[in-house]
Design a protein that fits this description.
With 295 residues, the chain is α/β, with parallel strands linked by helices. Helix content is 35%, strand content 12%. It contains nine helices and ten strands. The strands form two sheets. An eight-stranded parallel beta sheet has the order 1-10-7-6-5-4-3-2. The protein is globular and about 50 Å long.
Length: 295
């Protein structure tokens, strides 16, 4: 058996941390300006409403001004999240095709913005079964990546296990990747709340969870990590994010995870309830031990 890597929590302050920020009015420029107000060094956006629908023309996102401001303030490795309405696991033909069209369009929009990562939720099989859902997702990704041959890396987000969603087990994500021809275009987005809720013990032994991920998928595919506390307990199969330090994972655990060497060089993105991003980023960096009281 190959020797396990020796993981450790390092003393180096991670450099890529940000939050899910708004594109209201000026698009990417607005997102950068909001991120600067949090002293963030990365960020995540939706290029349209996270519920889908008609999108603002991507040419109106002030891309060049935004990138200039990002360089000035050290904001790097931004992320796009695709709309929740995408469901590539659906047995309904119109829903499945809508998801294909929407994800394909978001690939082109993300590429135009010069953003390297596009995260999406794999989808829900709505009663058709996990195996069916996995095959359906892979079939859709093969169609999409054949037509959108260039662009950002597409990241399958690991899920919490609620309902009929596909992707709460590492094995499910691995099988989707196995069935896709363009494996070079696929990666994974982790999420602390999702892993905890899905029954991966990130509180008691984060290294063990990473070993599991490496064995099943490969750590080389882990590209982005969402940092969220959880409103529901371990192995609850419920996806409800809590503010950092105000959930059942705990602030100290999340701060330690952020300092882990495996995550050190990837974008760490907060999707916590809004209003506290600046304070939460300062806490995770270790600049303060105080967290804001949550209203």
């Amino acid at each position: 058996m190959a020797q396990r890597p020796s993981f450790h929590v390092n003393g180096v302050i991670f450099v890529k941390i940000g939050a899910n920020v708004s594109i209201a009015k000026t698009g990417l420029l607005a997102a950068v300006e909001e991120s600067i107000s949090y002293r963030a060094t990365s960020m995540m956006i939706y290029t349209r409403s996270n519920r889908g629908g008609k999108a603002k023309p991507i040419e109106e996102f002030h891309r060049d001004e935004a990138h200039a401001l990002m360089r000035e303030h050290g904001i790097v490795d931004p992320v796009v999240h695709a709309p929740y309405l995408i469901n590539l696991a659906s047995p309904k033909e119109d829903t499945w095709q809508y998801g294909i069209d929407l994800l394909k369009e978001d690939i082109f929009r993300t590429a135009y913005l010069g953003i390297p990562w596009l995260v999406f939720h794999p989808g829900s099989h709505t009663g058709a079964g996990i195996e069916y859902g996995i095959e359906r997702i892979a079939e859709a990704l093969n169609i999409i990546l054949a037509e959108a041959a260039e662009g950002p890396m597409i990241l399958l987000e690991t899920m919490a296990g609620d309902g009929s969603k596909v992707g709460s087990r590492f094995e499910e994500i691995a099988e989707i990747i196995r069935l896709v021809d363009r494996k070079d275009r696929l990666g994974v987005c982790g999420d602390t709340c999702h892993w905890f809720s899905a029954g991966y013990d990130i509180v008691g032994d984060f290294d063990k969870v990473l070993y599991q991920f490496d064995d099943v998928i490969g750590l080389n595919r882990l590209k982005v990590f969402h940092i969220n506390d959880s409103k529901y307990p371990f192995d609850s199969r419920k996806d409800r994010h809590a503010n950092i330090g105000h959930g059942l994972i705990g602030g100290e655990v999340l701060r330690r995870i952020c300092r882990h060497e495996v995550l050190r060089d990837m974008p760490l993105i907060l999707e916590t309830p809004e209003g506290y991003y600046g304070e939460e980023i300062a806490y995770l960096r270790g600049e303060t031990d105080e967290l804001p009281p949550v209203r």
